[in-house]
Amino acid sequence: xxxxHPLFQFLMMPFHVSSTYFRKLISSGGSGRGSAGxxxxxxxxxxxxxxxxxxxxxxxxxxxxxxxxxxxxxxxMSNQQPKxxxxxxxxMLREIAAEDGTLFAYDxxxxxxxxxxxxxxxxxxxxxxxxxxxxDGRKDPRPEQFLSELESNAAxxxxxxxxxxxxxxxxxxxxxxxxxxxxxxYFQWKRSPDTxxxxxxxxxxxxxxxxxxxxxxxxxxxTQAERxxxxxxxxxxxxxxxxxxxxxxxAGGEALQAIAKTGLHVVRIAHARKSFAIGSRPVAKLTxxxxxxxxxxxxxxxxxIAFDVALVWCGPSVYRLVQCVDAALIRNTNLSIARQSTVxxxxxxxxxxxxxxxxxxxxxxxxxxxxx
Length: 372
Prior knowledge:
It is built from 12 helices and 13 strands. The chain is α+β, with helices and mostly antiparallel strands. The strands form 4 sheets. A 5-stranded mixed β-sheet has the order 9-10-11-7-12, sandwiched between helices. Helix 1 crosses helix 7 (198-218) and helix 3 packs antiparallel against helix 10 (254-260). The longest helix has 25 residues, at 142-166.
C-alpha cells in the first residue's frame, strides 16, 4: 500500500514526529532505583540567564528543523547513501578507548563470546539503522544525515570541554555551543537500539489494529485488499521500522527545551585507577521513585564523553566543573549505563567484566563536592 493512501495516512498519524507511542516510553522513568540527587545542595555559580535563553532558543530551532526533516523525507534519495550507522558516534568512542583505539566489550546477545577486544570503529554499528524503508525497498538516509549533522556540531565542542576539564578549568561556551551539546545528548538518548523495547513494538501492532477499527467507524468499510495489505508481515515490519526511525529523529519540543533549562555539570574523574564505561544506550536518565518528569530537580541525565569526563544535565541553571574522587559515584554511573545496554564497552577488560558479572543494583550515594 502506498504511503499516500488515505488509510495509511490515517493509521500513521499518531506515529509521526512526537508520537504518543514514543512519549509513553521516554516518560516512563529512568535508570534510577533511587539513584538521582547527586548534585542537590552542591550547586555553584556560573549561571547565565542570557546564555540559557539563547541555548533554549537554539534547541527550539533544532526541534523545528527536525519536524521539517520528517515531513519532507518522502521521495528523497542520495547517490551516496551511508549504510553503516554508528548508534554511538565514533568521536565518543575514540575518547573512551585506549590510546591505541582498542575497546574491551561485551555483547549480551552473544554471551559465549565473553569479553572481547575490538577497534572502536567496529563497535555499535548497525546497517541502515536510521534509514527509512521506502515502498520499493530502497533506503532513505536522510535521518542518518540529520544525526550526523548533530554530531558534527557537537564533536568540536565536546573536544574543547574535555581538554579544559583535564586542565582543571571550565571551557567558555557560547549559547550555540550549549544548544549543540544539549540537542546532541537528547537525540543520543532517543536513538539507541535499546531505547524502544519489544513491549512498545507489540503495542504498535495493537494500535494499528485499533486504528483499522476506528477508521471503519469514522469513515468507511475497509476493503479486503486493504485489510490483506495491512496484515502482511512485510508491510507491518516496514511500518514498525519507519515509525521507530521517525520517533528517533522526531522533534524534541517541550522535553528538549526542559533539558536546556537545567544546569550543565562537567564531571572529571580525579582518580587515577577509575574510568567511565560506555554502552549501546550511553545516556543514563537517573530519577527518584515517583519523580520522572523531565525538568524536575530530581531527574538527571548522565553522558560520559571520555574515559575521564562526563556531562550531567540537572537542577537549576548553573555551569560548573566537578573534580570527582568518589569511587561510588563513578561506579554507580557505570552500573546505570551497563544495566540498560545490550553492549557494554570500556578501555579496561576488568571494568567490563565487573559490570556484566551480575545484575547490577544501583545504590544511592552521597552528593558531589562543590564545583569549581
